C-alpha cells in the first residue's frame, strides 16, 4: 500500500505523538511505501514562520534525519494534483488538506490521518 502522511501525522511521528495502533502498524510495515508531500513541508514552514508552530532551531535537520531513517519518500506537487482540487467537494477550506486529498486520489494512495474533516471525503484513510 502507498501511504501519504497527513502533516500532523508526520509531526507526531517525528515527535512521538499519539498515533493510533493501526496507524503505527501501517507506518512501520515495510511492505508499505510511505510518502511525505511537499505540501506538508510547505505547511510546516509557513506555520513556523508565522509563529503558529514552535519547533527547535534544528527542525529541518531532524526532519531530514527522520525522513531518511524511516525510508519516507518525497511527493512533489504536480499540476495534476492541483487540477484534482477543482473537483473536490467544499467540505472544508484548508488548502493543504485539499491538496493532500487530491494527491492521494491522483496517486492512488491511502491517507494516514486522524483529521475528521478529511475522513468526510471519498479518499482511502488509515487511522
What descriptive keywords fit this protein?
5 strands; Rossmann fold; 127 residues; single chain
- What is the CATH architecture term? 3-Layer(aba) Sandwich
Query: Could you name the ranges where pLDDT drops below 50 across 5 or more consecutive residues?
Result: none
Biggest sheet architecture: 5 strands, parallel
Radius of gyration, in angstroms, nearest whole number = 14 Å
Overall geometric form: globular
Count the DSSP helices.
Answer: 6
The average pLDDT value, as a whole number, equals 96
Strand order of the largest sheet: 3-2-1-4-5
CATH superfamily: 5'-nuclease
> H/E order of the elements?
EHHEHHEHHEE
Structure commentary:
There is one protein chain. It contains six helices and five strands; from the N terminus they run βααβααβααββ. Helix 5 packs across helix 6 (95-107). A five-stranded parallel sheet has the order 3-2-1-4-5. The chain has helices at 7-15, 21-28, 38-49, 59-69, 79-86, 95-107, and strands at 2-5, 33-37, 73-75, 110-112, 125-126. Helix content is 48%, strand content 13%. It is an alpha/beta fold. The model has no long low-confidence stretch (mean pLDDT 96). It has a single domain (2-126), classed as 5'-nuclease (Rossmann fold). The radius of gyration is 14 Å and the shape is globular.
